Automatic annotation (TrEMBL):
Pfam families: Rrf2. SUPFAM superfamilies: Winged helix' DNA-binding domain. PROSITE patterns: HTH_RRF2_1, HTH_RRF2_2. The keyword rRNA-binding does not apply. GO terms for molecular function: DNA binding; DNA-binding transcription factor activity. This is HTH-type transcriptional repressor NsrR. Keywords: DNA-binding. The gene is nsrR.
Length: 144
C-alpha cells in the first residue's frame, strides 16, 4: 500500500507542528521538508477543514495545531486523506469481481486493510514527534 503525497504532506505538517509546538508559516514547513509550498498550502487547507490545524492570515499569521497532538489519531488522519476505498475495487464493490461469491483474495485484502488501519490506531501525532527519539525530526534543523 502506498500513501498519496497529500497524506504524506499532511502527516509531516502535523508532526512538524507537534514537534515545535509553535505556529509556523507554510513556507517554513515546505523549506524544512523540501516540498512544494503550493501543494502544501492546499494540504493545510484540508487539515484546517478537518479541524486538525488553525490558520491565521496576515504577516504574523501561520498555521498551528487546533488540537493537542495527543488527540490527533494517526489512523483518523490517514483515513480522512486516503479514504477507505479498499486496495482493489472489489473490496468495496464485490459485484465487480467475477470470482464472487467466495473470493479468497477479496477477503485477504479486506483483512490486510483492516490490519493496516488497526496498526495506525496505536499512534497519535504526539507519539510520532517526541523529542526523546533518536533521528527522525531531530535530524531536521528546527529553530526551537
Amino acid at each position: 500500500m502506498k500513501l498519496r503525497i497529500q497524506t504524506d504532506y499532511a502527516l509531516r505538517t502535523l508532526m512538524y507542528l507537534g514537534y515545535t509546538g509553535q505556529t509556523a508559516r507554510s513556507e517554513d514547513i515546505a523549506t524544512k521538508f523540501v516540498i512544494s509550498k503550493d501543494h502544501l498550502v492546499k494540504v493545510i487547507q484540508l487539515l484546517a477543514k478537518h479541524g486538525y490545524v488553525r490558520t491565521t492570515p496576515g504577516r504574523g499569521g501561520g498555521v498551528s495545531l487546533a488540537l493537542p497532538a495527543e488527540q490527533i489519531a494517526l489512523r483518523e488522519v490517514v483515513e480522512r486523506f486516503e479514504g477507505r476505498n479498499g486496495l482493489l475495487e472489489c473490496v468495496e464493490n464485490p459485484e465487480v469481481c467475477p470470482l464472487e461469491p467466495g473470493c479468497r483474495l477479496r477477503r485477504a485484502l479486506i483483512r490486510a486493510e483492516r490490519a493496516f488501519y488497526d496498526a495506525l490506531s496505536e499512534f497519535t501525532i504526539a507519539d510520532l514527534c517526541t523529542r526523546r527519539q533518536q533521528g527522525g525530526l531531530r535530524n531536521l534543523p528546527f529553530d526551537t
